[in-house]
Task: inverse folding
């Protein structure tokens, strides 16, 4: 039994009382937290001195698309999209159809590697590749375990091309869940539907049924753009969340990604069913879809985690945008969320929003020993238990300050360097896949012609 002691750190527990312990210690045994406090004197195998460091629960990304890493910098020689639906049609759905199983692995390896360097110890990812369905989750799982963090992964079931393809996506999720969820691994499967405007009631019913049988978590993109809302109003006479409620999709084991175009009644339905929301502020800015009603959802007690939607994997930056966006939108510098609330959104709330609140998200006895440790040695002002949340939100920290990342009691990142993976190797694998993908998308020849 290996015993690890984190010593003399500013311990931000994110427990029910949001307790912060100055010069605190955390005792870890076999990857689990067994003691938290000031005076821990047991004999240990490893001591990590956390003086001048703040120890957070590992940061958690509530929603991402790992495969989007392969499109960074691509010369998209298309008619510029003027709305979100055109974005999907001209960019993402075209890319999805070109993805291979090798792309699923290399994109996940690079993206998860970058998440880890940013202090992220767990994420929820939805993969979409209609021509690389079967076996895709195995590739993403392998990449995640190669990096050494946690993942809740799924295939994005959709009927935008055919009903049969939607069923194949559902069955890929079912296959992976049946083979992996009973095992004690870092990666587990969940169920996913792309969005209500690309799936039938039948596929929603089947997904709800499959998830209930295995007591599994599930997720869906919800009213990210107006097309989702308009589709449901025109075809079903219901708003998006109303339809999902009527079809039994909502509940405490469900996460709605985005939830931008929802009204007060829909917020009430989300709150009533204790459904989770994954807020993706930077992606919403990029796609110009609108601003989610985050303050209103918080006032109704809805659990909200922050994700990146595949755009900018920096957890601190996404959290900070979630803090600032709604003040600007309401023209009120006192508008919710508070600094504490947004830190909750990348820790304990995000853990709940990906179905892992009992295992991670706070520094408490019995939970997994996942930590993100930030260096405080060069801060311009003092940091202590009364201002640590403000320091994280107001700009004292960035990804450069990630001193150490620990998952299951094992250090996977130290001083910006991964414990076992070589940065050049990870980058080169991703570049090779990107070149091949861009050629299939007829982007590389266009670059050559321009030159």
Result:
């Amino acid at each position: 039994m290996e015993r690890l002691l984190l010593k003399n750190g500013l311990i931000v527990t994110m427990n029910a009382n949001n307790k912060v312990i100055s010069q605190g210690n955390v005792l870890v045994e076999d990857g689990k937290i067994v003691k938290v406090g000031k005076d821990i004197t047991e004999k240990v195998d490893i001591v990590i001195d956390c003086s001048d460091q703040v120890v957070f629960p590992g940061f958690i990304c509530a929603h991402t698309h790992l495969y989007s890493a392969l499109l960074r910098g691509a010369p998209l020689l298309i008619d510029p999209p003027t709305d979100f639906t055109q974005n999907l049609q001209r960019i993402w759905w075209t890319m999805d159809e070109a993805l291979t199983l090798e792309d699923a692995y290399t994109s996940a390896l690079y993206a998860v590697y970058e998440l880890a360097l940013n202090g992220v110890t767990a994420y929820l990812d939805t993969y979409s590749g209609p021509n690389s369905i079967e076996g895709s989750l195995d590739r993403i799982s392998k990449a995640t375990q190669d990096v050494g963090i946690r993942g809740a992964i799924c295939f994005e079931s959709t009927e935008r091309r055919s009903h049969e393809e939607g069923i194949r996506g559902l069955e890929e999720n079912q296959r992976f869940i049946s083979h992996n969820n009973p095992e004690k691994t870092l990666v587990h499967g969940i169920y996913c539907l792309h969005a209500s405007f690309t799936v039938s009631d039948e596929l929603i019913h089947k997904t709800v049924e499959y998830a209930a049988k295995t007591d599994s978590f599930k997720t869906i993109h919800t009213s990210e753009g107006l097309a989702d809302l308009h589709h449901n109003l025109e075809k079903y006479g219901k708003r998006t969340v109303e339809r999902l409620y009527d079809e039994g999709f909502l509940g405490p084991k469900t996460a709605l990604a985005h939830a931008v175009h929802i009204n007060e009644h829909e917020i009430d339905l989300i709150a009533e069913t204790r459904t989770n929301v994954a807020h993706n502020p930077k992606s919403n800015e990029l796609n110009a879809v609108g601003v989610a009603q985050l303050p209103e959802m918080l006032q109704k007690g809805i659990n909200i985690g922050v994700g990146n939607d595949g755009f900018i994997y920096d957890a601190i930056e996404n959290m900070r945008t979630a803090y600032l966006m709604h003040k600007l939108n309401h023209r009120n510098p006192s508008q919710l969320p508070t600094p504490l609330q947004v830190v909750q959104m990348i820790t304990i709330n995000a853990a709940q929003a990906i179905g892992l609140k009992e295992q991670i998200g706070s520094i408490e006895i019995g939970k997994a020993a996942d930590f993100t440790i930030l260096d405080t040695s060069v801060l311009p002002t003092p940091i202590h238990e009364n201002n640590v949340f403000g320091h994280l939100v107001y700009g004292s920290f960035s990804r450069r300050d990630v001193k150490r990342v620990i998952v299951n009691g094992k250090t996977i990142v130290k001083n910006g360097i991964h414990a076992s993976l070589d940065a050049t190797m990870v980058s080169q694998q991703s570049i090779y896949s990107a070149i091949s993908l861009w050629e299939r998308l007829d982007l590389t020849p266009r670059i050559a012609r321009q030159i």
Summary: The domain at 3-57+363-418 is CATH 2.30.40.10 (Urease, subunit C; domain 1). Confidence is low (pLDDT under 50) at residues 445-451. The longest strand covers residues 3-12. DSSP finds 16 helices and 18 strands in the chain.
